[in-house]
Amino acid sequence: MSADLLRINSLKKSFYRSSSLQTKVLSDVSFSMKEGEIVGLIGASGAGKSTIGRIISGLETADSGKILFAGDDLTKMKTKVRRQLAKDIQMVFQDPYEALSSRMKIHEIVGESLHILQIEKGNLEQRTQLVKEALRSVNLDPDYYMNRYPHELSGGERQRVGLARAFVCKPKLILADEPTSMLDTSLRLDLIRLMKRMNQQEGTSYLFITHDIALTRDFCDRLIVLKNGEIVETGETLDVIMNPVHPYTKTLIEALL
Ligand code: ADP
Ligand code: MG
């Protein structure tokens, strides 16, 4: 952990409901992440967490502010930067159905980004090897799962496919937006263990978005607490959980007890 992987400066975002009515969703959000770091972004529903994730991944644009990824300004979005963004930043979503097209077989789903990014272009065998490796890294036997469809899998298996799809590009950063909230407790912990293993083996960083502070305890190095589009507290995970400073953080923790 040394250089900044991601640096967000004064991110602002409003949504316009009508010509006269606008909702401020992010008021002045700044934070940074080191290479290899796992950061939990926590806050109640509606706080603006997903909007931050969507802006970083390029699915949404900010009104103002700067996003530096490995030194490159993503808000400028030059072609080179955009391609790098597509390879180095992957997203994992809450609902596996959202990201997993049901008409595609699992190996097509996992290999799709390799295809888009033209990694191993033309070399089907090498691409298949990368897909198999990604499936193995989430404890799914490729021989069985490669040719299945999403509807033939359980929710936990589908979410692991979503993770394999992110892992296959060997991204530097994974934006994981409530990836465990559709799963029961033991499957939640399984998924977190898989994400942690990829962090230890490959140095993958995570921005782990969740409303459930309990999940961050054994996973995140550091927490950022977001309330109504503003960061109200940051600190090392255990410090924040054991000694929350802001009243809002206290209420998030009390809700666990
Ligand atoms: P969280 O992920 O913390 O629950 P979100 O970032 O999804 O919060 O949403 C924050 C606020 O922004 C909510 O009030 C939501 O209704 C609003 N919002 C999010 N996306 C849009 C959109 N595309 N258009 C209008 N309002 C939006
Ligand atoms: Mg959300």
UniProtKB/TrEMBL annotation:
Keywords associated with the record: ATP-binding, Nucleotide-binding, Transport
Keyword Ribosomal protein: no
Top-rank lineage group of the source organism: Bacteria
Family: Belongs to the ABC transporter superfamily.
InterPro entries: AAA+_ATPase, ABC_transp_ATP-bind, ABC_transporter-like_ATP-bd, ABC_transporter-like_CS, Oligopep_ABC_C, P-loop_NTPase
Keyword match Nucleotide-binding: yes
UniProt GO MF annotations: ATP binding; ATP hydrolysis activity
Cited PANTHER family: D,D-DIPEPTIDE TRANSPORT ATP-BINDING PROTEIN DDPF-RELATED, TRANSPORT ATP-BINDING PROTEIN
Stated name of the protein: Dipeptide/oligopeptide/nickel ABC transporter ATP-binding protein
